[in-house]
Write a structure and sequence with these properties.
By secondary structure, the chain is an alpha+beta fold. The protein has a single domain (about 5-185), classed as Heat Shock Protein 90, CATH 3.30.565.10. It is about 40% helix and about 25% strand. It contains 7 helices and 6 strands. It has helices spanning about 5-15, 45-50, 70-80, 115-125, 145-150, 160-175, 180-185; strands at about 20-30, 35-40, 85-90, 95-100, 130-135, 140-145. The protein has a 6-stranded mixed sheet with strand order 3-4-2-1-5-6. Strand 1 and strand 2 form a beta hairpin. The longest helix is centred in the C-terminal third of the chain and has 19 residues, at about 160-175. It is globular, with a radius of gyration of 16 Å. It starts with a helix and ends with a helix.
Length: about 190
């Protein structure tokens, strides 16, 4: 996968398939690392699956025998000198964390995080997304649960609402990471 937004889409789809009702996504720039974390309250994985989840020939999907998303995500982080970790508890959810060395030439670009999150919200508007970006410059948070409270019956997937959300996410990304991550790898 060529950018972080595609990994975000893949990991979030795993959360959706696991029955998550809340998906928390954070991007943090700290101590020379870009740290991506996605956690959910889905069904989680048992110990046996968790131990094999980074193997491309392990998947719980019945439509194919190969699962490349998590192994490729792990490889993307490790190629920069970073690390990858996944924790899961059956019945409680899963947390996936990738640490990228921020100034590594091998660090994949961020991609269209705002458009990816827009697509995820449109696909499953009933899920509550908690989005957080942090750097030493600024921080940004958006919780779709809070947005829904102010909509007074208007759907979160309404054209104007979802475009407003995407714009807020884009502004948050620029405020928090603009000039920090963009200078490093575009």
């Amino acid at each position: 996968m060529k950018d972080l937004s595609l990994h975000l889409m893949d990991i979030a789809q795993n959360s959706i398939a696991a029955g998550a009702t809340v998906i928390k996504i954070s991007l943090v720039s700290r101590d020379g690392f870009l740290i991506f974390r996605l956690s959910d309250n889905g069904c989680g994985m048992d110990k046996e699956i968790l131990e094999k989840v980074t193997d491309p020939f392990t998947t719980t999907r019945t439509t194919r025998e190969v699962g490349m998303g998590i192994p490729l995500f792990k490889l993307s982080a490790e190629m920069t000198g970073g690390s990858f970790e996944i924790k899961s508890h059956k019945g409680k959810g899963t947390t996936t964390e990738a640490r990228f060395v921020a100034d590594s030439i091998d660090r994949i670009p961020l991609g269209d995080i705002d458009e990816t999150l827009k697509a995820l919200i449109l696909a499953k508007p009933e899920i509550d997304y908690e989005i957080s970006f942090r750097s030493n410059k600024a921080q940004f948070e958006l919780k779709t649960e809070n947005v829904k409270k102010y909509l007074n019956g208007v759907s979160i997937s309404n054209f104007e609402v979802i475009n407003w959300i995407a714009e807020k996410i884009r502004e948050g990304m620029n405020e928090v990471f603009g000039g920090v991550l963009n200078e490093i790898s575009g």
